[in-house]
Amino acid sequence: MKDLSIVLKEVGRERKDILLSILFGFIAGITAVGLFASSGYLISKAALLPPLYALTVMIALLKMFGLARAAGRYGERLYSHRATFTILSNLRTGFFEKIEPLAPGIYQKYRSGDLLSRIVGDVESLQNFFLRVYYPPIVLIIVFLSTILFTSFFSITIAIVFILGLILTGFIVPALFSWNKRGLESKVRERRGELSTEVTELLYGFRELKLYQRLEEKEQLLTKASEEYIQEQERDGIQSIFNVSVNTAISLMVSWTVLAIGAYLVVEGELDRLFLAMLVMISLTVFENATPMAALPGHLEDSRRASSRLYSVVKEQPVKTKKPKVTLLSSDALSIDFEGVSYRFEGEQRNALNRVSLSIPAGSKTAIVGPSGSGKSTLLMLLLKVLHSEGENVLIGGQPVTHINAEDIWEKANVVLQDNHFFYGTIRENLEIAREKASDEEFIQVLEKVDLSHFTLDSEVYERGENLSGGEKQRLAIARAMLKNERLWILDEPTSSIDALTEQAIYKELLSKAADDTLVLVSHRLTGLEKMDQIIVMENGEIVESGSFNELMAKQGYFYEMKRIEKSVFG
Amino acid sequence: MNELNRYAKQYKGTQLFLVLTAILTGLAILAQAYLIVIVVDRIFLQGQAFSEIVPLLGWLALALVARAGLTYASGRAGVRMAAKVKSQFRRKLLAKFAKNPIQASLQGQSGQKVSVMLDAVDEIDSYFSKYIPQVIQTSVIPLMLLIAAFSQHITTGLLMLITAPFIPLFFIIIGIKTQKKSEQQMDKMAAFSGKFLDTLQGLTTLKLFGRSAKQKESIRESSLGFRDATLDVLKVAFVSSLMLEYISMLGIGLIALELGLRLVVFESVTFFTAFFLLVIAPEFYLAIKELGSAFHTGRGSMGAAKKIIDELEENEQTVKWGSNELVVSSPPAISLDNAGFKYGEQGFELKEITTHIKPYTQAAIVGRSGSGKSTILNLLSGLVSPQTGQVLVEGQPLSEWTEDSWFRQVSYISQRPYVFAGSITENIAIGGNQEATREEIEEAAKKAGIWDLAMSLDQGFDTQVGEGGRGLSGGEKQRLAIARAFLKKPSIILFDEPTTGLDLKTEQILQQSIKELSAQATVITVAHRLHTIKHAELILFLKDGRLEAAGTHDQLVKAASEYRDMVTVQQGGETG
């Protein structure tokens, strides 16, 4: 519920549209009551053969109510939707404000590709919070209170019946049913999860299932999972129908009570007979407003779940830089040291890095190699303060990173990640991210260096760079790093999708540009490493060996073996 | 729509039941109106005593409860029907998918099929649970109310009859006008969500370049821009429902006016008649309006149904099996006789492959990517059937052996072995033909070099892997697949060698294990390692879907220049 209060706060900011939604909702609700009340009164009055003019007034009133009701409904819809979309916009920006200080560390921590699309979906689903949970009960209560007030002029007893009816159909019954439904719905979700696993395994694991003759078994499991899921859906669906029917029955019975009591009161002479039809018509109409209340707990629960999932992501505090704060000098090439660094991802049993010690002198060129999952990228992430290790054992320029602002490190580094992001726009816009005030010539020059001269600066880039090939994306990312031109180069498999010839040319450019700078290159491939000062070989989170290319080849150890295998692997 | 209707027609009983409940609901509405009116009439005009209306109140209570009960009955019937149809669709899809999704997975369509089986089937629900019951109600109830109105007062009946068609007419006009626009808007909405996602995904890049602060404003702006665009479309929809309200209001107003005038001026109707008509008029318009919203839900289902039916009607080649039991004590001889296979109409084609693989042969399939290597492996495994020529096992077409007896002989170690949700033990046990004992499983794990890995985990062999469990690296998955093969002890091993270097340990294990397994089996490898092809007794060199040359390494180096180029370039290691 606490997370929902954040949403509540965002909702509260759209005061004007909320008030307008409530106002028009009220108009629509109360005029509907007025419409039916006046038509009941009109008929009764007419039956008593009044003068025609009395009738004319009533008919005019009737028409007015009808028009006002339709207009009110229109206004309510318009303003409530406008409020909803504004609120969604507030939620998006609000959420962005919260996740921004935590990125990119938070993405690494969850390591799940669907985290972000889940966030987007959760924000979307919160639109029902205002539209179905927040303001309709307010409108309902105001309409009811006004109706009850109006009714009390004619009969206190009937007003009391209305109050009881409201409490029953608007609150008690929905609350009871939602309590009962919560269990059913979570079972539906559970069964869906089970079915989803079975379907995925059948389709993706088909070959294994077929060859190991487990297909029939799987088919039976899947059919069973599907039947159970459908059964739970059915149970849930029937329960919903039952709830709606019971609520309808109760509201109809309230109208019945109004009729019975009204009739009794008329006979007893405590109620003017002229108003009997009117009160019955009011009762039949006003309880129509209470019906949506039955769906409210469900929407509330959905919103609660969405908001708690959403805000659980951004719950943690950003890691603070320790004092005394140190600022890196941009004129210096920086040295890097790891002193027995271990790191374990949350929820995993094994260390991704295990007591890693290494030393990269200022201005040297280092390659880190090893099979996937050996901890190469984790090492870089710790260096960039995207991930945080305990202790003060990661040092840049001789200073522990815990005392350096992450932004400071990023500012001083030219980084190419494995997965670089490109935004919808032009090549120029995507390059400007690295250096805002560069001339077109500079941009064109750097494009030439990375062999991308077939693009112009105005060439279009789609979202996520979808219209670029893997190699083009990597080259564009390298171009950005070159433009930034700081003195620390951190490159995580920058050329994995680039052919060997181009790769060589780009390495040459990079090394000449970074001649006096510190450069750390993570590579999956073992080609082109001859010029490196140091090669660090990792496996299972540990450093297996290190040394120059020639040293490692002479040693005939792990690197030598890997090189031998790589040579013998066909593309 | 017609497609789903066809399914609905199977449930004649349910439909009949729904018509019956609709008629009874109509009667309940009429009874409700009649009884309320008569009670008011007797109290109001005739001044009867309360005791005289008590039985009427009793009947009224019954009618009200009946109305709610009928809502329940009809809703329940709809939900039940939906459940049955969903189950039917899912079984059909399963039958279809279980036959041969290997081609789909080769074309990367597995994800789409998962979504059809899960989501599309679910989306059909509302057609049967909501749309059909509503259509039946709307075609029955307004008609009954109209008849009742005519029976009481012809002018009112005429007013209803004239105004009512405007509601569906308006729906149609507005629907045509807005549908396209609102569909465009839906696309826009998806694109907009995409943009928010884009910014979130790009946050790492933005932060590394110190540019994230600006993005907040751009999210807000595009969010609000999207809001305004959406509201423009929604406004049209809101105006249309405004018009519908006006039509029904106008209808009710006209009826009230007409009745009031007759009551007062002409005194040609009674209070009873007037009041009765005034109560049923809103019910009449409401029932017609509800069809519109039901139609909306129905349309979503129709889109989903189309997806399912497309999937069901897609042509797929199924694999045929025979009735002969393949019983062998040593690996069976395998040959390809002019075998060919083509993916789809314009897809890649493997042509006229003829070769003979003797028992215990170490065969290697070599060629550039896209030359048809994996297709041959799929043909040899029996996962797909040749479209031309034959695969012969022990001299008989593969299709004459029973499926079971063939697959009992085969293991397939793919580049990306699938890991099922479950423990490591369960994942290895899949390889066994019968229920394997724990000892046998651990023995297989030892041979495949994953015993150490399993024991290093907190829960050992019971550690959950696969979906929702611990992730395994590529090398670990390969070793798991090897363990499956050790447990199965097959006489034919098909091996798709990894295209990239794995960790040293896995590389060593792969070599050793294949050697060990090959003592009891024929091994056919799609080879990516020089070591493998040099040791092969038979190399099949493929080019563009054809068997370019076959023989040993030495023979091919002499005879096939393209083979020689490929291998020597690799050996020279010029990329190093």
TrEMBL record, chain A:
<feature type="domain" description="ABC transporter">
    <location>
        <begin position="336"/>
        <end position="565"/>
    </location>
</feature>
<keyword id="KW-1003">Cell membrane</keyword>
<dbReference type="GO" id="GO:0034775">
    <property type="term" value="P:glutathione transmembrane transport"/>
</dbReference>
<feature type="domain" description="ABC transmembrane type-1">
    <location>
        <begin position="19"/>
        <end position="305"/>
    </location>
</feature>
<keyword id="KW-1133">Transmembrane helix</keyword>
<feature type="transmembrane region" description="Helical">
    <location>
        <begin position="18"/>
        <end position="40"/>
    </location>
</feature>
<feature type="transmembrane region" description="Helical">
    <location>
        <begin position="52"/>
        <end position="72"/>
    </location>
</feature>
<dbReference type="InterPro" id="IPR017871">
    <property type="entry name" value="ABC_transporter-like_CS"/>
</dbReference>
<dbReference type="InterPro" id="IPR014223">
    <property type="entry name" value="ABC_CydC/D"/>
</dbReference>
<feature type="transmembrane region" description="Helical">
    <location>
        <begin position="156"/>
        <end position="179"/>
    </location>
</feature>
<dbReference type="GO" id="GO:0005524">
    <property type="term" value="F:ATP binding"/>
</dbReference>
<keyword id="KW-0067">ATP-binding</keyword>
<feature type="transmembrane region" description="Helical">
    <location>
        <begin position="244"/>
        <end position="267"/>
    </location>
</feature>
<dbReference type="Pfam" id="PF00005">
    <property type="entry name" value="ABC_tran"/>
</dbReference>
<feature type="transmembrane region" description="Helical">
    <location>
        <begin position="133"/>
        <end position="150"/>
    </location>
</feature>
<keyword id="KW-0812">Transmembrane</keyword>
<dbReference type="GO" id="GO:0016887">
    <property type="term" value="F:ATP hydrolysis activity"/>
</dbReference>
<dbReference type="InterPro" id="IPR039421">
    <property type="entry name" value="Type_1_exporter"/>
</dbReference>
<dbReference type="InterPro" id="IPR036640">
    <property type="entry name" value="ABC1_TM_sf"/>
</dbReference>
<keyword id="KW-0813">Transport</keyword>
<dbReference type="GO" id="GO:0005886">
    <property type="term" value="C:plasma membrane"/>
</dbReference>
<keyword id="KW-0547">Nucleotide-binding</keyword>
UniProtKB/TrEMBL annotation, chain B:
<feature type="transmembrane region" description="Helical">
    <location>
        <begin position="236"/>
        <end position="257"/>
    </location>
</feature>
<dbReference type="InterPro" id="IPR036640">
    <property type="entry name" value="ABC1_TM_sf"/>
</dbReference>
<keyword id="KW-0813">Transport</keyword>
<keyword id="KW-0067">ATP-binding</keyword>
<dbReference type="Pfam" id="PF00005">
    <property type="entry name" value="ABC_tran"/>
</dbReference>
<dbReference type="InterPro" id="IPR003593">
    <property type="entry name" value="AAA+_ATPase"/>
</dbReference>
<dbReference type="Pfam" id="PF00664">
    <property type="entry name" value="ABC_membrane"/>
</dbReference>
<keyword id="KW-0812">Transmembrane</keyword>
<keyword id="KW-1133">Transmembrane helix</keyword>
<dbReference type="InterPro" id="IPR039421">
    <property type="entry name" value="Type_1_exporter"/>
</dbReference>
<dbReference type="GO" id="GO:0042883">
    <property type="term" value="P:cysteine transport"/>
</dbReference>
<dbReference type="InterPro" id="IPR027417">
    <property type="entry name" value="P-loop_NTPase"/>
</dbReference>
<feature type="domain" description="ABC transporter">
    <location>
        <begin position="334"/>
        <end position="569"/>
    </location>
</feature>
<dbReference type="InterPro" id="IPR011527">
    <property type="entry name" value="ABC1_TM_dom"/>
</dbReference>
<keyword id="KW-0472">Membrane</keyword>
<dbReference type="GO" id="GO:0140359">
    <property type="term" value="F:ABC-type transporter activity"/>
</dbReference>
<keyword id="KW-1003">Cell membrane</keyword>
<feature type="transmembrane region" description="Helical">
    <location>
        <begin position="269"/>
        <end position="288"/>
    </location>
</feature>
<feature type="domain" description="ABC transmembrane type-1">
    <location>
        <begin position="16"/>
        <end position="300"/>
    </location>
</feature>
<feature type="transmembrane region" description="Helical">
    <location>
        <begin position="157"/>
        <end position="176"/>
    </location>
</feature>
<dbReference type="InterPro" id="IPR014216">
    <property type="entry name" value="ABC_transptr_CydD"/>
</dbReference>
<feature type="transmembrane region" description="Helical">
    <location>
        <begin position="56"/>
        <end position="74"/>
    </location>
</feature>
